[in-house]
Amino acid sequence: MRADAARNRGLIVDAAYKVFGERGPAVPLEEIAAEAGVGIATLYRRFATRDELLAAVALKHIESYERALRRALENPDPWQGFSSFVRAVTEIQARHLGMADVLISPCPGTPDGDDRSMAVFDGYLELVRRAKESGALRDDYAPEDLPILLMANAGVLRGTGEVAPRAWKRLVEYLLQAFSCPKRRSLPAAPSPAQIARALKSPAD
After folding, report:
1. Cα 96 from Cα 53, distance rounded (Å)
2. What pLDDT, in 10s, does the model give residues 105-121?
3. CB 36 within 8 A of CB 8
4. Were both Cys, which of 91, 100, 167, 190 would link to 154 (CB 3.0–4.6 Å)?
């Protein structure tokens, strides 16, 4: 890719990351081009469809998850590592309110996105394992509980984002405290991974 083409691509992705995060993924692409300072024809030369652009934006979000995961795995305290990752991924949702629902869905299908998403999930499973082995995370916590938390957080962000922009933090801290409580009664069964995967699919899928 020529230097000017690579530069334009970067400008478009940065603009989409910002505008989609503020207003959602349905923003007219003409507005993305204007934010990037390029013409709509240039945008379409770099991204033939909205889904291609969303996939590029999703990769930028995955980079944020990867950074949060590295910090969490480096933390010598298993509970602090686990809880810091939960706080980080929910804060990413909150900072990009327009994408709150999209960010709980799998990365649009690109081989790189799929592989990196799976690597983040595997790292999350390692955080769960460490926290359970330390006794800090209740033993009936299921990996599927994090997607459920993210779906709940998306609902809180939609409902309170403009009038009580910090309400989501209370939800997250409530649930982290619940995750760390000793088991007193059995919980209902967690959804299966297949059920969570279907629930996370966007309506367009």
Report:
1. 16
2. 655 556 677 888 889 99
3. yes
4. 100
Each residue's pLDDT tens digit, 130-169: 999 999 999 999 999 999 999 999 899 888 877 888 899 9
Cβ-contact 97, 106 below 8 angstroms: no
In this structure, are residues 148 and 172 in contact, taking their beta carbons and an 8 Å threshold?
Answer: no
Distance in angstroms (rounded) separating the CA atoms of residues 20 and 99: 6
Q: Is the dihedral of CA 145, 92, 95, 93 positive or negative?
A: negative
- Reported for 140-143, long-range contacts at CB under 8 A and 24+ positions apart, including other chains, are 140/183, 140/186, 140/187, 141/179, 142/190, 143/193
d(CA 159, CA 170): 14
Q: What is the pLDDT of residues 177-193, one digit of tens each?
A: 999 988 778 888 888 88
Helix, strand, coil proportions of the chain in percent (round to 5)? Answer: 70, 0, 30
Long-range CB contact pairs, 65-72, < 8 A, 24+: 65/89, 65/92, 65/120, 66/116, 66/119, 66/120, 68/92, 69/120, 69/123, 69/124, 69/127, 72/123, 72/127
**Residue 127 amino acid letter:** L
Write down how long the chain is. 205
